[in-house]
Design a protein that fits this description.
Immunoglobulin-like, alpha/beta, Trehalose_TreC, 3 domains, 22 strands, Oligo-1,6-glucosidase, domain 2, 5-stranded antiparallel β-sheet
């Protein structure tokens, strides 16, 4: 499979590099930084959306799928970017947001004028006979999932921000239009696609209330019809190219369904993003809470998905960070006392698992959450809504702010830190979001004296060199250990034993004799001191080590 030995890098264009000093990252900025990206030796870049958008949800509210928003550049810039990346053997993956459009999209605007054809592009419903909203569904960004449809007395569905109207996938004309979008970009040299929240497209034709006490998301997420939609999407667009790499962002999904989405013989997707492992610091499943992460649960989830997907012939996308998550190093590592070591440990954990690893911009230099001092410094719509909701629910301003500070999506959206200047070398003018940690953490400093970037280079080259990493099976190891996540990869006569210490204290791992009878080599270790494979391995704080046994 073409994607098993690949490593994919995510760029959030708004925050990568600003070439024209308007405070917003752009396509020409990315072109300028291609040599840096090439140095990392990644295979492909997933770009968050840069299409025309009013930017209420940072570009995930698309008003025109066919045009590049002028804040990011022009189509000529895009074509040059694709060409430049191709010269460096880097592929392009575009983000397709096909569950909803901006309410400024031409389709929604035509629907508002009374065009029945376009009204059927969305979920537009009458209120209940008693005047209540069509259903009791809630938006993922807070409040009701229904908003007034002009002055018609009807409502339209928006599972996300109120200016993101959900598309009606039951309408074959909607699906045809969306496949045209994918093919338009495919014809411009884009072979790979990431599909945003694609498994919430499977809503029923008749929308009904969810039963209080049950998970409301299950009524519209991961339903059987999503498989049909994905088969059709594959057949109508990228499926003509067996080398195309695709990933679906799957909300509230299951191992069983994710196997089906990604089994090659089903002709749906190459792999899936799932988020269960990133909810282990949610108190009682609630995101807007502040609680230490549950290490046992983290291990269980990673192990369950590795085993389940492997046994069923499915494929995982592996990641800790993206534009929707606070930095993993703040959640699962120690950014103050062990920034380098915990960054490297987290990277090792993911890169040596079975699946395709993703690196989010800045992860390779150990970027951390910003040190904002007031709610005014945040811009993310979900964050601002959550802050108001926390206050309304009885939290003090300080309590609400502490939660926001640990969970906001803005944490990972701060500009990429290229140097230690006021605006982090991202721009010469005030950036759209303020950087705060660039004095200590920046590309220039990392490349001249750091160790995280070169560690990532090593992990990437190992995946390309050793088939046991890209192709091997997965088995759990010492699942009961209180501070170590260990696992074993196997291929033919080779065994790879990986040990990751998730805590800032030394610990010991007992290794069974079956691993001690053959020759071993240490393929990676984030400490310089020599380490041997013995019956008792001592791991330093946040140490990761991988032994190749053959």
């Amino acid at each position: 499979m073409s994607f098993k030995d690949k490593v994919i890098y995510q760029i959030y264009p708004k925050s990568f590099y600003d070439s024209n000093n308007d405070g917003v990252g752009d396509l020409r900025g990315i072109i300028e930084k291609v040599p840096y990206l090439s140095k990392l030796n990644i295979d492909m870049i997933w770009f968050s959306p840069f299409f025309v958008s009013p930017q209420y949800d940072s570009g995930y509210d698309i008003a025109d799928y066919y045009k590049i928003d002028p804040i990011f550049g022009t189509m000529a810039d895009f074509d040059e970017l694709v060409k430049t990346l191709k010269k460096h053997n880097i592929g392009v993956m575009l983000d397709m947001v096909l569950n909803h459009t901006s309410t400024e999209h031409e389709w929604f605007q035509k629907a508002l004028t009374g065009d029945k054809n376009y009204q059927d592009f969305y979920y537009i419903r009458d209120p209940k006979p008693n005047g209540d909203l069509p259903t009791n569904w809630e938006s993922k960004f807070g409040g009701s999932a229904w908003a007034k449809f002009g002055d018609t007395g009807k409502y339209y569905l928006h599972l996300y921000e109120k200016r993101q109207a959900d598309l009606n996938w039951h309408n074959p004309d909607v699906r045809k239009e969306l496949y045209k979008v994918v093919n338009f970009w495919y014809d411009r040299g884009v072979e790979n696609f990431r599909f945003d929240v694609i498994n919430v497209t499977g809503k029923d034709k008749e929308l009904v209330d969810y039963t209080p006490g049950t998970n409301p998301k299950l009524i519209y997420t991961d339903t059987p019809i999503v498989q049909d939609y994905l088969k059709e999407l594959n057949h109508a667009t990228f499926g003509k190219n067996p080398e195309s790499v695709t990933v679906g962002e799957m909300s509230t999904t299951s191992i069983k369904n994710s196997i089906e989405y990604t089994r090659p013989e089903n002709h749906e997707l190459s792999m899936v993003f799932t988020f269960h492992h990133l909810k282990v610091d949610y108190d009682h499943g609630q995101k807007w809470t502040k609680t230490p992460f549950d290490f046992k649960l983290l291990k269980k989830i990673l192990n369950d998905w590795q085993l389940g997907m492997s046994e069923g012939g499915g494929w995982n996308a592996l990641f800790w960070n993206n534009h929707d998550q606070p930095w993993a190093i703040n959640r699962f590592g120690d950014p103050i006392h062990f920034r380098n070591k915990s960054a490297e440990m987290l990277a090792t954990t993911i890169h040596l698992l079975r699946g395709t690893p993703y690196i989010y911009q800045g992860e390779e230099i150990g970027m951390t959450d910003p040190d904002y001092q007031s709610i005014e410094e945040y811009v993310d719509v979900e964050t601002l809504n959550a802050y108001q909701q926390l206050i309304a629910n009885g939290k003090t301003a300080d309590e609400a702010f502490a939660i926001i500070k640990s969970k906001s999506r803005d944490n990972s959206r701060t500009p990429m830190q290229w140097d230690n200047t006021k605006y982090a070398g991202f721009s010469q003018s005030t950036p759209w979001l303020k950087p705060t940690t660039q004095k200590e953490i920046n590309v220039a400093k990392e490349l001249s004296e750091g160790e995280i970037f070169s560690y990532y280079q090593k992990l990437i080259s190992l995946r390309k060199k050793l088939r046991i990493i890209s192709e091997g099976s997965y088995e759990p190891f010492i699942m009961e250990h209180e501070s170590v996540f260990g696992y074993v990869r196997k291929l033919n006569s080779q065994t790879l034993l990986v040990l990751n210490n998730f805590y800032g204290k030394e610990t010991h791992v007992k290794v069974p004799s079956e691993y001690l009878t053959q020759d071993f080599s240490v393929i990676i270790n984030n400490y310089s001191e020599k380490i041997n494979l013995t019956s008792d391995v001592e791991l330093k704080p946040y140490q990761s080590v991988a032994f190749l046994i053959s």
